[in-house]
Amino acid sequence: MNDHHTRLERLEKMAHRMDTAIRVPIIGLRIGYDSIIGLIPGVGDILTLAPSAWIIIEAKRMGASPHVIGRMAANTATDTLVGMIPILGDLFDATFKSNRRNVAILREHLERKGAVPAGQPQYA
User: Fold this and answer.
1) pLDDT band (50, 70, 90) for residue 9
2) If we measure between CA atoms, which residue out of 15, 20, 14, 54 comes closest to residue 36?
3) Distance CA 32, CA 23 (A)
4) In terms of Cα–Cα distance, which of 67, 75, 66 is closest to 103?
5) Which of 8, 17, 93, 97 has its CA 20 to 30 A from that of 37?
6) Residue 86: CA atoms inside 13 Å, Cβ hemisphere, count?
7) CA 49, CA 40: separation in Å to the nearest integer?
8) Tell me: the pLDDT tens digits for 28-82?
9) Apex CA 32: angle with CA 39 and CA 47, to 5°?
10) What does the chain look like in DSSP terms, one character per residue?
């Protein structure tokens, strides 16, 4: 297993925790710590920006192209800005899952470059 693959798996695990680790009973929606922390008025969405930024920084370190970084940054900005809107932002945050999206974008980029083997992520 190469370094990129190991790092990508670590990012996938973190994205899973942030976006889909908890199943909401009855409705079956999966949420993560991002949705829960985002409920804290004023600071929740800012706090969840740190793990999202880490994913983008790691993508840059792993050689992601400027286009890939731009797409990831746009997802994170959308999640953060819309997430700041009371109630509507919290509902959006529970469904948009920007961390999962960003890691999927990174995985696709790395697979195309041949830096990681093609395959389904562990936390699909």
Assistant:
1) very high
2) 20
3) 9
4) 75
5) 8
6) 2
7) 13
8) 999 999 999 989 887 988 999 999 999 999 999 999 999 999 999 999 999 999 9
9) 50
10) --HHHHHHHHHHHHHHHHHTSEEPTTT--EE-HHHHHTTSTTTHHHHTHHHHHHHHHHHHHTT--HHHHHHHHHHHHHHHHHHTSTTHHHHHHHHH-HHHHHHHHHHHHHHHHTSS-----TT-
Which two three-digit tokens encode residue 59? 């993508």
Q: Are 32 and 18 in contact (CB under 8 A)?
A: yes
Angle among Cα 8, 13, 15 to the nearest 5 degrees reads 90
Residue 84 CA to residue 88 CA, distance in Å, equals 9
The pLDDT value given to residue 122: 64
> Which single residue is written with the structure tokens 């790092």?
7
Structure-block tokens of residue 104: 């999927």
